[in-house]
Amino acid sequence: MGHTLNVANSSASRLLYYIPDKISERALCIATVSGWDPVPIERIAPPFRGVHRHFLDQYSKLHLWTLDRKGFKGVVYVDADTLVRRNFDELFRLPWTFAAVPDVYVKPQGAYSGYVSAFNAGVMYIRPDSALFDDMVSKIATARYPAEQAEQAFLNHYFGAEVLRLPYAYNANLAIKKRTPALWKGLQEEMRIMHFTMAKPFLQGDYAEVPMDQLEKNAEKVARKKSAFREEIMEWLEAWKETRRTYGAKLAQCNAL
């Protein structure tokens, strides 16, 4: 994702939040070779049971609202399981407090089904405000929202009707292709960010790490298993090959740690 952001020629600063005791020196080195500035943050623990086990650290994302303390007036948050297709710097000019893209579900999940008004927190524009951060943290344990989706459900509850809902081009969830292929095809010319929600070529099994020298083989395996997304996975694979060529020496140094 970092390399494709560079190719898109974004003018934005690049901050990579990480929880120090959750990541190794090697992993942090790999994650920052494309130009990210690592920013350590304290983990915000889930306030109650029922959070999906893959989302147990996600409340820590709320620290984004404290970036006003570092002088930032606008922030675009992007999940790591994405690929940047086109520059999206226009988002920084939004005169809004919060913006995100509506979510899409292939199969019903609780109260959610199909195209919903609730947004996906994988791509967000926010206007940092430490006072808002303090207020959110004070309410995550008492507000009423579905526990499983962690901070995404809380943010939907907290911002509610105030959120500006962005076009799907800014968070092109693979679920769109599965549910409405014609819409996915129509998004191609405008797509800024592709979100690998339903097929993750960089992971194996249940979110297990893939050794760097096996990433290409793993991506091809995932493409065979999830053939509906083969074209997108192959696009990710080409981006990875270009990343490896561009930062090969630095990646090798990191991998040796």
Task: Describe the secondary-structure layout.
Layout: H1 2-7, E1 15-18, H2 25-32, E2 37-40, E3 75-78, E4 82-84, E5 98-109, E6 112-126, H3 130-139, H4 150-159, E7 164-165, E8 172-173, H5 174-179, H6 181-187, E9 193-195, E10 203-204, E11 208-209, H7 215-225, H8 230-255
Parallel strand pairs: 1-2, 5-7, 8-9
Antiparallel strand pairs: 3-6, 4-9, 5-6, 10-11
Helix pairs in contact: 2-8, 7-8
Can you put this structure into words, describing what you see?
The structure is a single chain. The chain folds into two domains: 2-196, Spore Coat Polysaccharide Biosynthesis Protein SpsA, Chain A (Alpha-Beta Complex), CATH 3.90.550; 199-257, no CATH class. It is built from eight helices and eleven strands. It has helices at residues 2-7, 25-32, 130-139, 150-159, 174-179, 181-187, 215-225, 230-255; strands spanning 15-18, 37-40, 75-78, 82-84, 98-109, 112-126, 164-165, 172-173, 193-195, 203-204, 208-209. The strands form four sheets. Strands 3-6-5-7 form a four-stranded mixed β-sheet. β1, α2 (25-32) and β2 form a beta-alpha-beta unit. α2 (25-32) packs across α8. It is globular and about 45 Å long. It starts with a helix and ends with a helix. InterPro entries: Glyco_trans_8, GNT1/Glycosyltrans_8, Nucleotide-diphossugar_trans. This is Glycosyltransferase Family 8 protein. It comes from Pycnoporus cinnabarinus (Cinnabar-red polypore).
